[in-house]
Amino acid sequence: MSNLITANDMKSILTSRGPGGVPAGAQLTPIARDLLKEAERKGPGLKKAVATSEPTVPDYEYKWTSGNEPQSPAEFQAFYDSPAISTLRQRMSDIGERIWNKDYVDGNGGNLTIRVGDNLVLCTPTLISKGFMKAEDMCLVDMNGTQLAGTRKRTSEVMTHIGIMKRQPKAKACCHAHPPHATAFAVASVVPPTCMIPEAEVFLGQIGMAPYQTPGSPENADTVGEIGVDHMSVLMENHGVITWGKDIEDAYWKMENTDAYCKTIWMASQLKGGELKTISGSQAKELIGIRKSLGMDDYRETWKECELCDNSEFRPGVVCGVPPAATAATTGNQPEYDDSAEALVQQITNEIMRKLR
Description:
CATH topology of the largest domain: L-fuculose-1-phosphate Aldolase
CATH superfamily of the largest domain: Class II aldolase/adducin N-terminal domain
Number of domains: 3
Strand content: 5-15%
Distance between the termini: 74 Å
Number of helices: 13
Structural class: alpha+beta
Order of helices and strands: EHEHHHHEEEEHEHHEHEEHHHH
Radius of gyration: 28 Å
Number of strands: 10
Strand order of the largest sheet: 6-5-4-3-7-10-9-8
């Protein structure tokens, strides 16, 4: 080993011999010096920590023991006040502030849920701004929507979330909001195309579209619930968007993914004015493989490559312009247009509307 001790050298020394193993007179890089100081500060316990520590990723999924749920009102309240559930309630409050700051909701719009048992769900309350919720505002309900704990009345739209959870066991949390770009697609009843952006293919898969039903109604819960089985992001016609994931952070991320994707597709369609470029079917297959490696199913797994990127139903808007018949230079600075221009514009508009229908 050279006289210069790098960070990797220092880790090796600390793992095998501890702080006393550093050679006398050795020169240390700044990071190596920091590692040595930390080792000397913590003492003998560091050797084991250095040897066994592994890089990790955040995991906010709530895991419960099936069949071990509270039964009485007192038990429901104790469960609601427990440290683990209190942490989830605070996280819901934080996510609410984030969707409000992103302009994904206005007034008292939007709602959040986390499944915390075989028959238990945390949800946001009704008639409250998501930007100003507190942890104690959250409600605990069962899978029929009956409120079990919490001083605020639960949102009526929790049943739509439960409609997905009942049908899709992997849906441990849902996020409903009205992000402008994705909601615009929902109002226009336009399903976003696929095979445009790799991240959307991996983290969203194909976005679903649910026909309009009255918000909070049993019909909406059934309709969205069925679509939500295979789609982690569902546009609800003339309403908004609902996304689900393994935890509330994951569900919220998918809301951001959905609105950003819809915004990008909308802007690209304005730039191109025609069919947009896609990745190939074989490349889409690779992305589905990555998606599955992350624990997300994709019902398109058995599709043929030619089917994966078929966006024949999607038609971006086209702006048509009719050139003037003469320039200003030849008409005394007063442009003149061909008399048939208006009729031509109307003919093109009618053809576009026919294809859109």
